[in-house]
Amino acid sequence: MDTIAGLFNYWIVIVLMMIGFYVVIADSNLIKKIIGLNIFQTSVFILYISVAKIDGGAAPILEDGITNYVNPLPHVLILTAIVVGIATTALGLALIVRIKEAYNTIEEDEIHEKDGTL
Amino acid sequence: MLVVTALATVFVRDLFAVIMLFGIYSLLSAGFFLNLNAPDVSLTEAAIGAGISPILMLGTLALTRKSLAPSAIKSKKKAWLPIIVVTLTGAALIYATLDVPHFGDPSGPAHNHVAPRYIKESYKEIHIPNIVTSVLASYRGFDTLGETFVIFAAALGVLALLGAIKQGDADDYRQFSDTASLRRHNILHVISKILIPIILLFGLYVQFHGDYSPGGGFQAGVIFAVAFILYALIYSLSAAQKIISPLFLQITMVIGVLLYAGTGVASLLNGANYLDYSVLGQDALKGQHNGIILVELGVGITVASVMLSIFYTFAARALHTNETSEAK
Amino acid sequence: MMNLLLDDLPALQVMLPLLCAPLCFILRIKGLPWLIAFVTSILTFAVSFMLFNQVADGDILSYAMGGWAPPWGIEYRVDRLNSFFMLLISGIGVVALLFARKSVDSEIIACKQSIFYSAFMLCLAGLLGILITGDAFNVFVFLEISALSSYVLISFGQDRRALTATFQYLIMGTIGATMILIGLGFMYMMTGTLNMADLATRLPEVMNTNTIRTAFAFIVIGASIKLALFPLHIWLPNAYSYAPSVVTVFLAATSTKVALYVLLRFVFTVFGAEFAFGEMPLQHILMFMAVLAVLTGSLCAVFQTNIKHVLAYSSIGQIGYMVIGVALLTTTGLAAGILHVFNHAIMKACLFLAIGCVYYRHGSARIEDFKGIGKTMPWTMAAFVIGGLGLIGMPLTVGFISKWYLVIAAMEQGAIGAVTISIILIGSLLAVAYVWRIVEVAYFNEPTKEKAKIKEAPLALLIPTWIMALATIYFGIKTDFSVIAATNAATTLMGAK
């Protein structure tokens, strides 16, 4: 019982991760793929931030009289990762716009048909 | 809640709804971060995940939907393969969690090796209360430099892909923008006149108060960009571009990255290691302070100009496509 | 002053190209971005050469970014393994940029060239940053710099398929990077550190946990996507084929190599060979995948009609050889694998440069375009043949040397060795098939009328091509340098348990 309670949070994160991952690899619409990628990444962020949590710990901004803080390092890493994520998203979306202009569709199957590949 | 929203994105096929759901999802995760005592991350996720990304996604949608017949929903041929891959990955992850320290457990190794020094010593060594800022800008300042270049790369990519096709397009936008209904609302104009300066002020506060409270260059940069995006949405793109031209943004984004990287070079020239700020002031603490302010400013300038520049590029493309499709 | 900068060589290695990128972007006077990029790449090469010499006798250089001692700050760590890789990557960068001026002028419109060179320098800096860093999370950050900038570079391709190829690469690449991120997260959970050397000392305590096993699996899979190891290679052929010529040259010779480095670094240095191959069945999996890669890659290459596709599939096969060397799990095997990284980079660069010349004149690289090209563009084709002989593994070329060492390493093993040798033989025969097909068309078919007028490629393109062609022969005859460097790198890796 203790194990379940202690790990429940991580399992939820994993479910989220897998939903995002599924959308990325299974959906044929390019915009949805990007959204799936975002969900996948965001859930990894949640995983990291969950690691940082310490019961009873305060936000990592020093104040007199508080000694128990949550771990600041994962926060820093995730700030970095969020910005990397938006960079990838922006680039992916720009590509989608160009793909639409070149193929007049944003469905993966139709693109393959038009190229005659796969 | 998060699971429900995420699941919904799988089954809803209307892209507009999916994007909205994704915005909600981001906002929920931002709330969750706050709950986990990560205010800095929460602020960033709210601004980026629920602010910038949906705007860009909607922009893309607007650009790709035009004249696109709703695609026939095809039977997914190989639907089993993704399901197997996902299940396997998920199972591996669950398997992995069986041995991890429990959620919130203070005795986990993550909390007892590198992190304690940041908590205990950072005030002595850097003298600012926000530990996240100290780690971000100083201890692991090089990561942050790297990521500033990542978004710079993204701006390069968007400009390369969607950048202006020919000069002189900008003049045509004005006619188009007059017809858009949003820009005729007087109430919106009045509200925005009050709101936008407040957002900008808040941005400045987040930028320069980041040492003491949650915030810093990223968050401020995004907030700044949002203020101008709002302006562009309510007035018009050309009105916004009159205040800040796309070329100006390209110059400022270069200034931003160079400010960060240049601070590092300044340390080098002063005989210290790259990005060692302690030589940048009369004493080590002063130097750390100066260094952090400079690099945070660099980050802020870069992020704001990159985000706004990306928005401009998308919006200009949208206007361009609209015109050509109307002309047909 | 000079002394000061000498101490900071590790930082300069990455900062030079990184600082150069925004300058290229903003200084849009014709020709200037190229000049800045070219000069910087030469300086970068000089820096990597100095670093290479500094660590040649087995020292390890450690450089603390921001003056914070690791594991609190980020550490740059130069040893004989990554200095060899950096030398290779920055060298290829110089040659590619030499080629770029003419080739980019013809393939990319003038107003976007500054963006192109800026992205190119970012990509170079990103790859070097991955190689030099001693911090696991920093690897992720620089992986993304190089990844995003290579998406930008590939999307400059003229064919509309460049766009879809980039998109596919973006999706696969981001999944790979996120997997690495998950793996790092688990490692951090169990050890509390992100510094590689520190991880290596702290991991053994928690080695026997599900978490670390999974972390290991995720990092290996993430790196394999970037490495394009079979069956995770699907992004590679299109990305290489539709990118601008220079980009193909640069990426084909560098980016998968850097991914292999990431794999080696994590498997051998961070986790340790004992764990990776004792505890986890990595040896068999890698060997199996590598063998499949050699066979399918080479076989697919035989049936392609676009020459760039032929070479891209051949790359997948060649990556297989490198991984076979690694999976043999001996110092000689590892040395052979690393040697092949070096040699393959040289000959693939030579081949893609030659194709770049053809593309410059013909505007495409389909096999029909090669009809009679042996007569119209003799110098280009001669370079192509040299590179092709390298792929087959003919003596007097670099290809022979790496296969020779691979066979020697395989002979030390019993049954696995015999299988490996036969795979290498089959792969070489397939290489004969796909190279010969092109050579036959080039020399024994008459050019069509309008193609007969086409002249030899300009000197500005031929010079870099021939530099690589000569390097293919030079390092195939005078092997001291590359063999010693590769062996040293392998010893460093194996010793770093």
Topology record:
The complex is a heterotrimer of chains A (118), B (328) and C (497).
Chain A: H1 2-26, H2 30-52, H3 72-103, H4 108-115
Chain B: H1 2-11, H2 15-35, H3 39-65, H4 80-97, H5 115-125, H6 131-139, H7 141-162, H8 169-179, H9 186-208, H10 217-234, H11 237-243, H12 246-269, H13 284-327
Helix pairs in contact in B: 1-2, 2-3, 3-10, 3-13, 6-7, 6-13, 7-12, 7-13, 8-13, 9-10, 10-11, 10-13, 12-13
Chain C: H1 2-7, H2 9-26, H3 32-54, E1 61-64, E2 75-78, H4 80-107, H5 113-132, H6 136-155, H7 161-191, H8 196-206, H9 210-227, H10 236-242, H11 245-271, H12 273-279, H13 282-302, H14 307-328, H15 331-362, H16 373-376, H17 378-392, H18 398-411, H19 415-444, H20 449-452, H21 459-477, H22 480-495
Antiparallel strand pairs in C: 1-2
Overview of the structural elements:
The complex is a heterotrimer of chains A (118), B (328) and C (497). Chain A has 4 helices and no strands. Chain A has 118 residues and is mostly helical. The model of chain A has no long low-confidence stretch (mean pLDDT 83). Chain B folds into 2 domains: 1-66, no CATH class; 130-328, no CATH class. Helices cover 75% and strands 0% of the residues of chain B. Chain B has 13 helices and no strands. In chain B, helix 7 packs antiparallel against helix 12, helix 9 (186-208) packs antiparallel against helix 10 and helix 10 packs parallel to helix 13. Chain B is globular, with a radius of gyration of 23 Å. Chain C has a two-stranded antiparallel sheet. Chain C has a domain at 281-497. The two termini of chain C are 38 Å apart. The mean pLDDT of chain C is 89. Chain C is mostly helical. Chain C has helices at 2-7, 9-26, 32-54, 80-107, 113-132, 136-155, 161-191, 196-206, 210-227, 236-242, 245-271, 273-279, 282-302, 307-328, 331-362, 373-376, 378-392, 398-411, 415-444, 449-452, 459-477, 480-495; strands spanning 61-64, 75-78. Chains in contact: A-B, A-C, B-C. Chains A and B meet through helix 1, helix 2 and helix 3 of A and helix 1, helix 2, helix 3, helix 4 and helix 5 of B.
Compact summary:
The complex is a heterotrimer of chains A (118), B (328) and C (497). With 118 residues, chain A is mainly α. Chain A is 75% helix and 0% strand.
